[in-house]
Amino acid sequence: MTGHAIVAFVPARDPDRALAFYTGVLGLRFVRDDGFALVCESGGTMVRIVTPADFVPQPFTLLGWEVADLDAEIARLIAAGVTFEDFGLTEDGIAWTAPNGDRVAWFRDTEGNLVSLSAHAEPLG
To answer: Which residue numbers delimit the VOC domain (predicted)?
Structure first.
């Protein structure tokens, strides 16, 4: 499917609460309510906030964003009330550094979904 746009799906018990978080805190652009999902856009990717039956947040990362300045984004989100996950991987409890120099920080959205921010030591591709 190389060359085709990716569409991301975010499950939510409370789609309006999730929309407020994804647009107000994370800065996604709201596009429309299409009757099936609340549609947002992030960096050219469509993000659909959906309400599945029997939704249970999973223990793995659902979405992630690559950012140029991880520390600045962490500080911005902390100021907006976001709490970062401490998986015991770091000294500061926030950003983990992989052996290749990539750095990652995780937090949960309003629905309990695990999401991440990352800064790569080398450009992908």
So the answer is: 3-120
Residue 124 domain-assigned? no
Look at the chain and report how many structural domains it folds into: 1
User: Which DSSP symbol is given to 83?
Assistant: -
The HSE-up count of residue 96 (CA atoms within 13 Å, CB side) is 14
Give the tens place of pLDDT for each residue, 21-80: 999 999 999 999 999 999 999 999 999 999 999 999 999 999 999 999 999 999 999 999
Residue 37 within any structural domain of the chain: yes
**Other CB atoms closer than 10 Å to residue 97's CB: what's the count?**
14
Token pair recorded at residue 82: 């976001």
**pTM for the full predicted model:** 0.90
Q: With respect to residue 50, please indicate whether it lies within any of the assigned structural domains.
A: yes
**Which residues span the domain enclosing 114?**
7-119
CA dist., res. 1 & res. 116, Å (int): 24
The answer to whether position 1 is within a domain reads no
Look at strands 38-42 and 7-11 and give their pairing.
unpaired
